[in-house]
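Researcher: Sequence recovery benchmark, item below. Answer with residues only.
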């Protein structure tokens, strides 16, 4: 394989997969995604590994480094934060590599919305509360398809994990309320989930803007909204005595 796209995980360097870690250790070239990738992961590289920060590179430059590396027979890792498939801009890289006939594989990673659930000690899918997780973002420079405006998604009242939007919190809250969530709906914000400096904020749609006002949380934060953040729910069928599944028979009376 010429290029390996690797999910770095949410921050804690131990949350990369074993496979991803092995690729980093073997790489001759690593192109990593700027400030969101924990620099501790780069310490896994060999001393002679060439390391590039893609934050200051254009797509063309990234592809050129990859193509030249492949031509020189080098092992190349493209290190993305969390899982590369979520807001990772990997498709445009893959399309360029396809044009050049360069092969690649993808090693998944722990996305930050999952590290956020872990930090919150939350289950996103509680029976009778929500069985759906919506992964989305507010509209910024990247326009949202009209059917995916936050207010339209909010109408489902499912659990929502909102990426890339903490700097627009006021607008997010307004759209969620416009979409039908009530002022009492719980909302949590986790900054830098799994990093040593992780911070957690909890409130409701009525209180969260005030809570966050002076906290200076401008980036690398996940917004989670939904009733799953409250604690009332039905017990899972999975462990109930009258629910048979592949590995357990139902109690007969
Ligand atoms: N591919 C990444 C997301 C990249 S988009 C993933 O799977 O997690 C960048 C956004 O991800 C940030 O704006 C923030 O909303 C979220 N994010 C990334 N790392 C985070 C972390 N450790 N804690 C909370 N949110 C994080």
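Model:
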């Amino acid at each position: 394989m010429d290029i390996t796209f690797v999910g770095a995980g949410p921050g804690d360097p131990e949350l990369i997969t074993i496979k991803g870690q092995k690729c980093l250790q073997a790489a001759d070239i690593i192109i990593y995604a700027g400030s969101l990738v924990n620099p501790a992961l780069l310490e896994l590289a060999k001393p002679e590994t060439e390391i590039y920060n893609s934050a200051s590179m254009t797509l063309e430059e990234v592809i050129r480094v990859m193509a030249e590396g492949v031509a020189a027979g080098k092992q190349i890792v493209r290190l993305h934060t969390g899982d590369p498939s979520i807001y990772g801009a990997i498709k445009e890289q893959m399309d360029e590599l396809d044009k050049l006939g360069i092969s690649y594989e993808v090693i998944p990673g722990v996305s930050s919305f999952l590290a956020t659930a872990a930090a919150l000690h939350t289950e996103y899918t509680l029976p009778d509360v929500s069985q759906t997780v919506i992964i989305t973002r507010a509209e910024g420079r990247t326009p949202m398809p009209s059917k995916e405006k936050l207010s339209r998604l909010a109408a489902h009242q499912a659990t929502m994990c909102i990426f890339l939007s903490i700097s627009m919190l006021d607008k997010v809250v307004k759209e969620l309320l416009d979409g039908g969530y009530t002022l009492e709906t719980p909302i949590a914000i986790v900054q830098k989930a799994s990093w040593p400096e992780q911070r957690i904020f909890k409130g409701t749609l009525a209180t969260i803007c005030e809570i966050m006002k002076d906290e200076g949380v401008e980036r690398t934060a996940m917004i989670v909204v939904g009733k799953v953040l409250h604690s009332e729910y039905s017990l899972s069928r999975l462990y109930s005595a009258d629910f048979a599944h592949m590995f357990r028979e139902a109690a007969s009376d």
